[in-house]
Each structure stands twice: as C-alpha cells, then as structure tokens.
C-alpha cells in the first residue's frame, strides 16, 4: 500500500463527504511546523483544533508511545492497568474531582457526563428531574445526545426525533437562565469559554450566578472543558481561574496531545450513580492512550508551561494589534490564553473562511469559529520565532484578503 499515490482526489473517491478538506496533505510535523507531500513547510496555529497542545512529535509523547507500545496496547475493562490508574490519580490530585471515567473523545466524555447527571437526579430526586439546560451556540460533540445539548441546530436537525427535555438560553444571559431553571432541572451544561460558538468568554458574575442557581435548585453544574482544558487558557482547567467549581468536568482534545482519549471527572458522591454495568467504553482507559496522556498531562501541568501560555498570549495580542492597525479588519481579539479569536468588523462580515484560505496560501494553518471569527489554538509551547514567523505569514494573508 505504501507506493499508492495518495491525492486529494482520492478523498472524494473513498471518503464519506461530510468533510471538505484542504488540498494540502501534511506528512510530517515537528514542534509548530508541518511539511506537506511537496515538502512545503507550514506554521501550525491550529493545533488540530486545540488538540496538539505540545505541537507535533514532542519527545516526551513520542517516548511514552514507543515505550508503552512495546508493552500493552489494550486491555478490556474486565481488567485495569497501570497507566490508567496513574493518570486518574494525577487528574484527581490536580483538580476538584475524586473519580475519573475514561473514554476516547470529547463527545463520549460529554455523553457520559449527561447520562450521569440524569441518572444522579433520578436516583436522588425522582423521575421528574430530567431537564438539561445548555447555551445557544454551545458545542458538546456529535453523538445524538451531545449534539442536541449543543446549541447549534444546524448540527442536530434532520436526524429525526431528538432526545427530549433539553432547553437552550443565550450565553451570559442570567435573566434567561433564571426564567427557565427550576427544581426539575437536573443539570446546567456550559463551556467556561465558548469555542465553536465564536470564542466567547463568560462574565465573571455570570459564572458565579450559574453556580448559585444550580445549588439552589439541586442541579449539577457540568463544565465542558474539552477545548479549554489542559493548559489552553493558562490554567490547568479554565474553572480554576473563574473561582467556580463544577460538579462534573469533561476533558479530551489536548489531554492526549494528539492521541485519542477523553475523561469525565466528578465527585465520589455523584460518581456513585454509575454503578457496575450502567455505562462503559470498550477502548476507554486503554494503556496506550493513558500512557501518552500521562506524559502530556505531566508536561503541561507545570508552572513553566502554564505561565508560558499567558506570555504567548501577549505575543499574539501585540502582533495582531500591529496587523490590525495597518489593515483594520478586526473588531477585537477575544478569548484567553492560546484560544484566541479575531472577530471580523462590519466590512468583512461572513468572510472568516477567506482569511483561512489566504493563510493556507501563505503556508499558515489557522481555524475559524463561525463565519466571523478567525481562531488560533496553537501549541502551548510554540516558540517565539514560530509565533513571529506565523504572524508574518498571517499579515500577508490579511493583505491578500484586504487587497483583493
């Protein structure tokens, strides 16, 4: 198979058409740089959508993968294994949680969180307490349950009857939440910084009020930290900077630094509702994923890396400010740490994808978050030189769009 010609055309022949990938086919990466089939070099400001938190081929991750790869790859959950227990212990030590459930993705972590929230409420308060409240423009995964809890109907419509008793209100709108929450609410689900919805930070008093309302109505507060977790905002988890502790937290993306793994974290009292047989995952907690994730977690959970995220944020903000002073296309730069969004102004409404395409032409990988936001989610250890080079390419891309 290795001599087979792999082209973009092959995608259209053999892949389900739910994606429309770029022409570029990357074949190797190092740090925040990637090379394609023609050996062109790109700077990576996308990080596989906030996944490659230590860039490409970080030595700590490569060595964990190789070492565990020679030992054990998979055990069923009839057994447990050392890497899973070590990683769980470290996550419990570093967070509010007492208990961890491992799975393979953010969607699965959220699926587990929502099932647990319902189960816990029914166990403790009876069959009526099933309402889940989430936020418009929120994103929580692609399973039918998680995509319904997500607040973007374009992703959940067209698949028949949806799971019921799920309501949505506007993010940061406390009055709207107050109007709908009641003793029937089993959980309020929120991202502590909306990612796909446009890189929107929560108001500090809003988050605190949500926590208080949950307490008042004996509802669980679920934080989806799939995109914000593992150092992305400059804290190990975003809740740590908000002065509010959730009851359930989900983590994935950066957790494995590129290897698929997800986790749901919660307290002992809440976890007790997932008794033997109530939920499971064939691959969840497998030794290979957990060994890589342990190396990623250990590497990120240091003062040097977490403080470095805040420093890198300032490199981006200064550079973007300088670009915008020249070209005046951004209304503001939103977000926190290394999850940043350049919000397009009136003149460039709906054109985020043009900036993404122009960046590719300049050998820079960026993201969008909706039609009006250009999103950056680079490696947490990206070098100053890589940021400077990437921003120089971004400036040329902006010039292309502005001058077209």
TrEMBL record:
Cofactors named for this entry: pyridoxal 5'-phosphate
UniProt xrefs under Gene3D superfamilies: Aspartate Aminotransferase, domain 1 (3.90.1150.10), Type I PLP-dependent aspartate aminotransferase-like (Major domain) (3.40.640.10)
EC number(s) from the headed UniProt entry: 2.6.1.11
Major enzyme class: transferase
Cytoplasm in keyword set: yes
Record text on cofactor binding: Binds 1 pyridoxal phosphate per subunit.
Cited InterPro entries: Ac/SucOrn_transaminase_bac, AcOrn/SuccOrn_fam, Aminotrans_3, Aminotrans_3_PPA_site, Class-III_PLP-dep_AT, PyrdxlP-dep_Trfase, PyrdxlP-dep_Trfase_major, PyrdxlP-dep_Trfase_small
GO biological process, one term: L-arginine biosynthetic process
Localization per Swiss-Prot or TrEMBL: Cytoplasm
Catalytic activity: N(2)-acetyl-L-ornithine + 2-oxoglutarate = N-acetyl-L-glutamate 5-semialdehyde + L-glutamate
Record keywords: Amino-acid biosynthesis, Aminotransferase, Arginine biosynthesis, Cytoplasm, Pyridoxal phosphate, Transferase
Modified residues (N6-(pyridoxal phosphate)lysine): 253
A cellular component annotation (GO) from this entry: cytoplasm
Pathway: Amino-acid biosynthesis; L-arginine biosynthesis; N(2)-acetyl-L-ornithine from L-glutamate: step 4/4
Keyword NADP annotated: no
Binding positions (pyridoxal 5'-phosphate): 139, 224-227, 282
One annotated GO molecular function: identical protein binding
Pfam family, one: Aminotran_3
Binding-site positions, N(2)-acetyl-L-ornithine: 142, 281
Miscellaneous: May also have succinyldiaminopimelate aminotransferase activity, thus carrying out the corresponding step in lysine biosynthesis.
Family: Belongs to the class-III pyridoxal-phosphate-dependent aminotransferase family. ArgD subfamily.
Quaternary state and interactors: Homodimer.
HAMAP family (alphabetical): ArgD_aminotrans_3
Protein's recorded name: Acetylornithine aminotransferase
Gene name linked to the record: argD
């Amino acid at each position: 198979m290795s001599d087979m010609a792999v082209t973009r055309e092959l995608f259209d022949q053999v892949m389900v058409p739910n994606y429309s990938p770029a022409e570029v086919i990357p074949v190797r990466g190092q740090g925040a740089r990637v090379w394609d089939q023609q050996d062109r070099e790109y700077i990576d400001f996308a990080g596989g959508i906030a996944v490659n938190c230590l860039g490409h081929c970080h030595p700590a991750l490569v060595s964990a993968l190789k070492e565990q790869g020679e030992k054990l790859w998979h055990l069923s959950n009839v057994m447990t294994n050392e890497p899973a227990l070590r990683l769980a212990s470290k996550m419990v030590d570093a967070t509010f949680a007492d208990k961890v459930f491992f799975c393979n993705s953010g969607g699965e972590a959220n699926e587990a969180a929502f099932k647990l929230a319902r189960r816990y409420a029914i166990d403790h308060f009876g069959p009526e307490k099933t309402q889940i409240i989430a936020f418009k423009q929120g994103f929580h995964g692609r399973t039918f349950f998680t995509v319904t809890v997500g607040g973007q109907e374009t992703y959940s419509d067209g698949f028949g009857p949806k799971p019921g008793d799920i309501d949505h209100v506007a993010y940061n709108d406390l009055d709207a939440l107050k109007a709908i929450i009641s003793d029937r609410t089993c959980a309020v689900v929120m991202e502590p910084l909306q990612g796909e919805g446009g890189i929107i930070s929560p108001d500090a008093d809003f988050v605190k009020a949500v926590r208080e309302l949950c307490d008042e109505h004996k509802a669980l507060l679920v934080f989806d930290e799939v995109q914000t977790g593992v150092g992305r905002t400059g804290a190990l988890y975003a809740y740590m900077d908000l002065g509010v502790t959730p009851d359930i937290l989900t983590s994935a993306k950066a957790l494995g630094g590129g290897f698929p793994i997800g986790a749901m974290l919660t307290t002992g009292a809440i976890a007790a509702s997932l008794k033997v047989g109530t939920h499971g995952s064939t691959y969840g907690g497998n030794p290979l994923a957990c060994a890589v994730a342990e190396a990623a977690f250990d590497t990120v959970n240091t003062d040097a890396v977490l403080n470095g995220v805040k420093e890198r944020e300032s490199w981006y903000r200064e550079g973007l400010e300088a670009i915008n002073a020249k070209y005046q296309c951004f209304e503001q730069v939103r977000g926190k740490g290394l999850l940043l969004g350049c919000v397009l102004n009136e003149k460039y409404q709906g054109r985020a994808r043009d900036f993404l395409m122009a960046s590719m032409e300049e050998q820079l990988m960026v993201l969008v978050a909706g039609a009006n936001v250009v999103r950056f989610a680079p490696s947490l250890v990206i070098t100053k030189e890589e940021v400077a080079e990437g921003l120089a390419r971004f400036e040329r891309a902006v010039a292309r769009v502005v001058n077209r």
